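Priority: medium. Attachment 1 of 2:
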């Protein structure tokens, strides 16, 4: 009965377990309808498991290390994180480098790593972002995470804010004074950037990535289902006693086999790591030795070259000095040019005479041989040949004589041209003399004008002095309460100006016109005597004269202070004017350059990205963050590849960033052209299609403009579109580096060149000749090296 009861309990428990398994299976089936893993995602999942198992310090993917407080934030968080959502978080940079090496070796694809020891956080203090009110909250606050992963969360999210509606986001980002301060994302995935631009919408891929936040719940359900399955297996094993032992043994064998393979993998990896470390150490030592020997050889070569150059300069100077008169008489620039021409003609003549002498001796030998054979017919023929050759020789000599005659005629023509040149030089000297005379007369007129200007300045200074004296007399009269017969007139806004006071000289006694200076001095002396007698009368009255002295002292100090103030104010105005002019010139220059680049960058980017599938190409934009004061803010550069939605520059791939950078470079070049470009492996991050586009564009620019490009590349697409190739090789015997150059312009566009057609066969002599042919004028040291 006890066994029956136990069997019944086991049967009931078995039914319950199966029912619960059906519920969990239904949940998993519903979840997997929305979350269908592709083959690539399965490979990525296996990849992260392998990295965790092989390397210590791999924590996992970012979305696996944290969870959302509310599921409604899933779409916004997914779009905000971008590629960082699937990034792998590791403890140290060293671990990330080892993981990347492993991925390359195993060809497991590309991954993004976030090393916690080297990432930089821009702004750790985020308390003021939490006090904005409304539905605004920091993106980091919608996560549940461990404190150890807080730094990775700050790196991925930054200071981005999350709110419910677009109206709230607009009110914060576009409010006066908030320009460029906040980056906000709404629940529906619309992003308001600091630059003022907006981006929104989501694709099917974004929806699939959003479902990754449900992976933890799915994992819990799978864990519970696995637990129930284990329990179900246990119950079934109780019912069937034979099968459990076989299944258990099979599981043990599988585990042992996996353990064996894991140990083999570990040993293999350890051996490869040791081997790589030894190779690196050995290569570092060899590199140090090679560098040392190379430096020594370069120093010796430089010294030898300096000595050779010094000797050559000395020889050239001595030869020019010694043969100066001879060169002038012959009509050449220097003795080197004469020697080249004369020696070339002499060598050609001597060579031709040697050839004729050899032919003559050969024919004479044949003649003697034929005579010895008593062959009269052959002798006659040989005599005819000799006569013909002599006739040709005479003709050649006549040609040489005609050539010498032509040379003499050309020398006479040259002398005639020199006479004409001398006459023209004499005329030029006469014209220079006339110009000199005109310039001297111009100088005299300038001197007279200067004297008149100086006289004008002295008259103006005297006038100002008299005006100042007049003003002092008026002030002195006012102080002494002397009523002058003045005619006052009101000026602007009724203000009276002492400098514009007019006097009524008709009221003055003895108002007569002064005829000369003597009469003026006499009248002035009489007035001065009257003033002196009046002052004597005033002194008898005993007034307080100290007040007058104090007034004069204060007036002098006021005048000096006013002059000093006027000078400083004038200097300040000049400095402010100069500063504003420089600032205006700098702004105009920058805006002129920026406007040109802004107008041309879109066309350049279209030319770099257009294809048959996308004939219009992509779009590129340059915008100033502050157009009124451009130097106080930055420049926003956005590029949108063809067929893709708008993204920030930091979210583009390496190849897309490279193309955008090249577009900016060529747009700047269109404003200030440089004589040539050096492009050092700019195609490293580009695929074959983009390499073809960039090479076509560079070739078209070099054809249309006076532009030269030196491209350092490992892609053959650049090779066959170049005008010339320069290759670097290692000379095993000399332990040095050498270079080979090939001019591709001498070959047709449709000619396919093999390696042997350009550089020759593997035979060393043929290869040396090919190297010499590639360099039209090799130096003496290079010939020695090739030999």
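Attachment 2 of 2:
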């Amino acid at each position: 009965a006890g066994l029956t009861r136990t069997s019944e309990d086991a049967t009931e428990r078995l039914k319950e377990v199966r029912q619960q398994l059906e519920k969990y299976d239904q949940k998993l089936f519903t979840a997997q309808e929305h979350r269908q893993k592709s083959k690539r995602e399965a490979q990525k999942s296996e990849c992260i498991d392998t990295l965790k198992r092989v390397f210590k310090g791999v924590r996992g993917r970012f979305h696996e290390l944290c969870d959302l407080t509310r599921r409604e934030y899933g779409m916004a968080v997914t779009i905000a994180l971008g590629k960082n959502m699937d990034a792998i978080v590791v403890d140290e940079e060293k671990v990330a480098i080892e993981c990347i090496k492993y991925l390359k070796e195993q060809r497991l694809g590309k991954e993004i790593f976030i090393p916690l020891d080297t990432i930089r956080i821009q702004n750790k203090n985020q308390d003021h972002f939490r006090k904005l009110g409304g539905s605004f909250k920091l993106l980091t606050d919608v996560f549940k995470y461990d404190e150890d992963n807080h730094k990775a969360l700050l790196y991925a999210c930054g200071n981005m804010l999350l709110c419910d509606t677009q109206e709230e986001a607009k009110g914060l980002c576009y409010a006066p004074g908030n320009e460029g301060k906040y980056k906000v994302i709404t629940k529906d995935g619309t992003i308001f950037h600091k630059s003022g631009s907006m981006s929104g919408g989501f694709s099917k891929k974004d929806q699939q990535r959003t479902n990754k936040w449900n992976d933890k719940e799915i994992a819990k359900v799978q864990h519970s289902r696995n637990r129930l399955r284990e329990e179900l297996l246990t119950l079934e094993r109780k019912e069937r006693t034979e099968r459990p032992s076989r299944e258990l043994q099979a599981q043990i064998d599988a585990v042992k086999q996996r353990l064996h393979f894991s140990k083999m993998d570990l040993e293999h990896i350890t051996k490869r790591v040791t081997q790589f470390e030894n190779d690196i150490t050995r290569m570092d030592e060899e590199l140090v030795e090679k560098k040392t020997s190379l430096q020594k050889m370069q120093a010796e070569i430089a010294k030898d070259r300096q000595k050779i150059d010094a000797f050559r300069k000395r020889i050239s100077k001595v030869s020019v000095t010694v043969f100066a008169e001879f060169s002038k008489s012959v009509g050449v620039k220097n003795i080197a040019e004469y020697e080249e021409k004369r020696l070339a003609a002499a060598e050609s003549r001597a060579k031709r005479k040697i050839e004729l002498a050899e032919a003559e001796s050969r024919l004479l030998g044949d003649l003697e041989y034929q005579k010895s054979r008593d062959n009269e017919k052959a002798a006659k023929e040989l005599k005819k040949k000799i006569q013909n050759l002599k006739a040709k020789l005479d003709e050649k000599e006549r040609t040489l004589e005609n050539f010498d005659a032509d040379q003499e005629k050309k020398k006479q023509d040259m002398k005639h041209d020199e006479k004409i040149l001398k006459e023209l030089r004499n005329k030029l000297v006469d014209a220079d003399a006339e110009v000199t005379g005109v310039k001297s007369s111009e100088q005299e007129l300038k001197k007279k004008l200067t004297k008149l200007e100086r006289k004008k300045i002295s008259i103006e200074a005297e006038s100002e002095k008299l005006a100042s004296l007049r003003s002092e007399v008026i002030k002195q009269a006012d102080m002494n309460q002397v009523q002058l017969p003045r005619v006052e007139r009101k000026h602007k806004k009724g203000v009276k100006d002492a400098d514009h006071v007019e006097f009524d000289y008709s009221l003055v006694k003895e108002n007569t016109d002064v005829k000369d200076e003597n009469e003026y001095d006499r009248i002035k002396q009489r007035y001065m005597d009257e003033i002196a007698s009046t002052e004597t009368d005033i002194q008898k009255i005993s007034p307080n004269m100290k007040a007058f002295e104090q007034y004069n002292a204060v007036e002098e100090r006021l005048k000096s202070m006013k002059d000093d103030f006027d000078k400083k104010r004038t200097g300040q105005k000049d400095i402010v004017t100069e500063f504003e002019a420089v600032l205006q010139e700098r702004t105009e220059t920058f805006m002129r350059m920026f406007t040109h680049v802004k107008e041309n960058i879109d066309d350049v980017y279209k030319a770099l990205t257009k294809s048959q599938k996308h004939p219009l190409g992509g779009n590129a934009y340059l915008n100033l963050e502050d157009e009124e004061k451009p130097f106080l803010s930055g420049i926003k550069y956005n590029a949108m590849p063809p067929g893709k939605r708008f993204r920030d520059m930091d979210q583009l791939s390496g190849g897309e960033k490279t193309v955008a950078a090249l577009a900016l470079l060529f747009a700047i070049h269109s404003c200030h052209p440089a004589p040539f470009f050096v492009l050092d492996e700019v195609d490293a991050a580009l695929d074959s299609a983009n390499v073809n586009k960039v090479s076509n564009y560079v070739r078209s620019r070099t054809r249309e403009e006076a532009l030269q490009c030196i491209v350092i590349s490992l892609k053959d697409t650049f090779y066959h579109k170049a005008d010339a190739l320069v290759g670097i090789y290692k000379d095993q015997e000399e332990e040095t580096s050498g270079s080979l150059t090939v001019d591709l312009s001498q070959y047709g566009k449709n000619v396919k060149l093999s390696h042997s057609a350009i550089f020759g066969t593997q035979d060393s002599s043929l290869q040396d000749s090919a190297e010499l042919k590639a360099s039209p004028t090799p130096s003496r040291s290079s010939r020695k090296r090739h030999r």
